[in-house]
Amino acid sequence: MGILKKLRWPLVVASLVLSFGLLLGGSALVRHLRVDSPLHAAMTQDPAVLGYSVDNAGTEPVLHVRLGPVPDLAETYQRIDSTARRTLGSGPYRIQLEDRRTPALASAYHRIHFALQEGLQRGTYDTMEQRVEAETAGLGLSSHRLTVSDGRIYVQLSQGSDYLYAVLERPQVQGGEGS
Questions:
Q1: In terms of DSSP bridges, do strands 49-55 and 152-159 run parallel, antiparallel, or are they unpaired?
Q2: Alpha carbon distance 23, 108 (integer Å)
Q3: pLDDT at residue 87 above 60?
Q4: By residue range, what is the domain housing residue 56?
Q5: Residue 84: closest CA among 172, 167, 16, 156
Q6: Shared domain check, 130 and 78
Q7: Of 9, 42, 92, 96, which alpha carbon lies 20 to 30 A from 59's?
Q8: What is the pTM of this model?
Q9: Cross-strand pairs, 65
């Protein structure tokens, strides 16, 4: 007990506070240099990206990306995903696209989402495309596009200068499953 009385407690507390502050500051600096700066450079150089933000509040970072009109959503999304993977690290993250959807475009998406979900679950992408064509025929859309990749289905709907983007994850088939 005698040794504890001889300690200079204000100096010990100040040292602990200073050490903790340096650790926090160092961590913030490393994050800025390894994540924030490279992400900012890549996102601001991408002509499809109108703006972005990162939300770190939840269990995984969410990259909110506001896109302009793009000719190929699959190509654009894969480029953004590659940037996110490279800068956010190997942990889980989500990309949330922000578009210029209108109630009419949201309604059109609602009309085709059953065909999309059935196509996803059954793997009947030709039938899905035919059903989407039939459902969108009389809706007054300027254009629509479906793209199927190894891991996702990309949906683009446009009407005039407004557009809706959706990215649906394809279920992963385990070895021995499927046909």
A1: unpaired
A2: 51
A3: yes
A4: 12-93
A5: 167
A6: no
A7: 42
A8: 0.76
A9: 52, 97
* CA 175 vs CA 118, 123, 178, 179: distances in Å: 22, 16, 8, 11
59 and 18, same structural domain? yes
**Boundary-marking domain end, from 93, 124, 152:** 93
Q: What number is the average pLDDT over the span 90-109?
A: 93
- With a cut of 60, say whether residue 178 has pLDDT above it: no
Q: Please say whether the beta carbons of 103 and 120 come within 8 A.
A: no
Burial of 153 (0-12, 13-18, 19+ CB in 10 A): buried
Instruction: Judge contact between 166 and 155, C-beta under 8 A.
Output: yes
* Residues 102 and 163 sit within 8 Å (Cβ to Cβ): no
Cα dihedral 90→94→98→103 (10° resolution): 160
DSSP3 helix / strand / coil % (the chain, rounded to 5): 50, 25, 25
